[in-house]
Design goal:
mainly alpha, 79 residues, elongated
Length: 79
Amino acid sequence: MPDEMSDDLRDEYDFDYTKAKPNRFATSHGSLKSGGRVFYLEPEVASRFASSEEVNRLLKALLEAMPPPSATATESQKI
């Protein structure tokens, strides 16, 4: 029985990290590069929008219509 601490991967599966390349799909979304966030919409909400641009346009319009947050509300929402 092999030692529990030994590597149980076969040699043919040994990953050469020097040949690794960045995941081209992981950074393909421009806003993620500039500090954006990903939010998941429920299916019934997502079905109303054709693109993330439409969602952002609506959210920006809502933000303009809302009163500015108070200083205490902003402080309590910090993580």
